[in-house]
User: What shape does this take?
Amino acid sequence: MKYMSTRGNVRGIPFKDAVMMGLADDGGLLVPEVLPDVRDQLEAWRGLGYIDFAKALLSYFIEDITPATLDRLIDDAYASFSEKDVVRLVEVGDVSVLELFHGPTLAFKDVALQLLGGLFTHILEERGGHLNIVGATSGDTGSAAIAGVRGRAGIDIFILFPLGRVSPLQELQMTTVPDANVHCVAIEGSFDDCQSIVKTVFGDLEFKQAYSLGAVNSVNWARVLAQVVYYGYTSLKFDEAPAFCVPTGNFGNVFAGYVASRMGFPIQKLVLATNENDILARFFNSGEYTRGEVRFTHSPAMDIQVASNFERYLFYWFGEDPAKVRAFMDDFSRTGKASIGRRPEDPLFLATAVTNGDTEQAIRVVRKQTAYVADPHTSVGLMAASRHPTLRPMVCIGTAHPAKFPEVVDAVLEPGSAVHPVLEALRGKSARRTVLPADVAVVKGFIRDRGRMTSAN
Ligand SMILES: *Cc1c(COP(=O)(O)O)cnc(C)c1O
Assistant: This one.
């Protein structure tokens, strides 16, 4: 299996190089040159546990790591989860919630980032050298990325987050990690500012190479791949092909569901649920992709206007034609809007936007009817699922533990409505962070000062 860029100027890249490259060198995103069709395996896979299923699936995409090593990396990644089978499927009224938040930072991003940390370490051990990971977070990615690489030899991690815009608990999950290789940077700006600084830093290829920068944002193919596993796994738990309802920000999670469907897993529909930042919902209902102003909502991990993984979907929508992707993305970066000229009419997707008021209502109604307490992101999905009452079986992706968002959940329900011992333990720990302006040059200077160079060259 080799990888290529959605923009066509990078091709023939083995998996390990794709992991290290992150964003493709031509500005596109890496995708497999050919997606495997696994339909003849499905019956054999139905009985597998999550970890064995992950091993079977990932081996299709990773040819340059020996099976024994890959198995060990997968075992290590999921040993940190409190759920033996990694994920948990819970009945909540007439839908199922697929809880993906039983990892160390209590959000679904651990599923991918615990694996990515191990992959980085393995590749660096083979090749030597040092990696400076640079990423932006609106909350959950940062702590999950830090948890994936903290204390690992050969890696430093720089996480940019918007000052005052991540919840106090989420900030503590990052800033209380004592390991010396962890650098938390609060940027005076929005999440989109953070993301655009990271993109610009990675776009400077000389800098990227000199400081051997690595990416953990959802542009990294390994993250998508780790997420394909839970769609495939869960789709085989039902007699009838289930629909999945996915709360979406960067289009990473739902794109993994799309890949699973293209590989032949039985998936009836993907219901894409955005919050008030509805650029993706508008695209699927009109074909227009138009950047708006970021709105701060109850589901901050989805307060995103430019969905960094969307380009991968476009690549397939355009029949895997990089020239069309390039033209669309050029339009978008020049003018803030681009269009495919009509509704995409993709039979797999339904898309809907959920307001703050509806998110609150979902939290309230679901608890009242089922006693289940859902976090605000999961609740965006639960509200979207309730708008399609005949689409069943329905699996709503549970992206975070509700105790991570007490500002919303406790305000809608009552104080202490969701708690978790991992979060209780953070209170009173000492924290470290550096505040910087939203300025690329200043951030580069910080990385230059704190990052370690590759000793090998
Ligand atoms: C990151 C995140 C999302 C959005 O996931 P995308 O892959 O960006 O679509 C949703 N909910 C939570 C809790 C998250 O951390």
